[in-house]
Amino acid sequence: MSTAPATTRRTGAAWLVVGAAALLGAVALSFFVGARAISPTVTLDALRDFAGTPEHIIIRQIRLPRTLLGLAVGAALAVAGAVMQGLTRNPLASPEVLGVGNGAAFAVVLAIYLVGITSPYGYVWFAVAGAAVSAVVVYLLAGAGRGTATPIRLALSGAVLAAATFSWTSTLMALDERTLDEARFWIAGSLAGRPTGVLLAVLPFLVVGGLLTVLLVRPLDALAIGDDAAAALGFDPVRYRLLGALAVTLLAGGAVAAAGPLAFVGLAAPHLARQLVGPDHRILLPACALFGPTLLLLADVVGRIVLIPLELEVGIVTAFLGAPVLIMLARRARVVAS
């Protein structure tokens, strides 16, 4: 009986190696591929010894910041999605289940509309604040009336708030042309045109959120078998759901502030990781940190080449590719529920 867990861990470790190799490949493609292809030799030269040539400028000033941002944002969204799925015991959960993504986007657009914020450095504070307020509102809605904030009530409350904040965001953009011009590029979701300073601005939020997920590894495994079982094992469900909500708020809020709202990354990457490495969060969360940026960088590469010399924003690509994943997950969830 003890060989099965050991076999599962070995399988999970093997998939982590595969995920790391896939991530390295995605990083390489992110440097090499675009409207102007650049060879690996030139790329390495640009990273080691900047000479000011056009190819070196593309690598150092455009593709390097873009790739680093993709790594951070992809990992943050994927880990946040895995935490949400663990907290709610719902395979369809993602950061949007708490309205975090749409809440952060609404806060940024509201800041543009009311205050005239135009710098990406200013987005981060409003995005994280919007994500935090959204999480609090969802918990209050889910816990209102009789009963407690169960996974189903959380999911329903999050869906309601996400729909509301999306409509408010659209209304603000329709009311003011300046807000529309400023926000439409950001709200589509993109890794392009973001200076390295944007990543540095959101990095503290992502690091703290990532550290909090480390504290959630054992509680998430306990919550997977039910609230009563988790409480019997010494894990307070309410306390750890609040801690998980804080982690998701920091991770998703920072990611949205940096790259805009990106659909399906927080849904598809955890699902893929769970299918490959199993439900043990000790392996699942690191796998998500590998698969998330891999999927995001590959989507970004597709967006660069599908309409050369034009580009599709990565948020459009992830939404297009993620729709079949959502349909598949919905069908599986229906089968399990029946």
From TrEMBL:
Residues in the signal sequence: none
Assigned keywords, A-Z: Cell membrane, Membrane, Transmembrane, Transmembrane helix, Transport
Keyword set includes Transport: yes
A Pfam entry, by short name: FecCD
Topology in membrane: Multi-pass membrane protein
Matching SUPFAM superfamilies: ABC transporter involved in vitamin B12 uptake, BtuC
Gene3D superfamilies: ABC transporter involved in vitamin B12 uptake, BtuC
Localization: Cell membrane
Parts of the chain that traverse the membrane: 12-33, 68-87, 99-116, 123-142, 154-175, 196-217, 242-271, 312-330
Keyword Ion transport: no
Highest taxon of source: Bacteria
Family: Belongs to the binding-protein-dependent transport system permease family. FecCD subfamily.
Protein name as it appears in the record: Iron chelate uptake ABC transporter family permease subunit
Species whose genome carries this gene: Micromonospora echinofusca
